[in-house]
Amino acid sequence: MGFEKNLNSDLSAERKIIIRTLIPLVEPLQAVLPAPSEVVLHDLSKLPNSIVAIAGNITERSIGGVATNTLMQDASSGNLDTKYNYNTKAADGSDVSCSTIVFRASNNVPVAALCVIKDVSVWKNLQEALSSLIPPAVVDNAQTPPPDAEVFSKDVDELAADLLKSAIARAGSPVANMTKSQKIAVVADLQDRGFFVLKESVEKVASALEVTRFTIYNYLKELGNRK
């Protein structure tokens, strides 16, 4: 018991050192990137309100702001990995290219995520305008974007609303017409995406699916029994 306590204490201290080391790098890194750009540092122990440093204003977030739906899902599923140059859209519809660098503790547990976001709308428009003059690229280094568009929510309520809207849309049926199995599928989808770490998550999904809180708890219990 004492060994485990000391181990947890050591890992907590290591996490703090990693975060403290990365925070001063955020502004200088953003300053040397082509504008417009944004650099965001997430402390993964603080999800969903995980932003501890940010420079730039593409996503209109601030310190204490929330992670994206994609980062939440990756953290929940245990699939947090560094990935480069995947494309998505900002809230205003502009095209952005994102890279996420994951930093791990000595026990390989993800500790921090440094996200670089670049607005590529200007370059995309220029490329389209000159497409008849420029031969197609031989190599495309951009990675395949995530199955769902990454959403840069401004707060937990907006993040919850986005996750709920997407999960219900994937169910393929209006809530009023959903069967029990479809509603359980929505809950399973949300669980996979880390929804239930959010404050008042059960109440929010119960309201959206037009059932009681106790029904959602029963769905979660049923899903747990299936594993």
TrEMBL record:
Top-level taxon of origin: Bacteria
Location of the YheO-like domain: 20-128
Limits of the Transcriptional regulator DauR-like HTH domain: 162-221
Stored Pfam families: HTH_22 (PF13309), PAS_6 (PF08348)
Protein name as catalogued: Transcriptional regulator
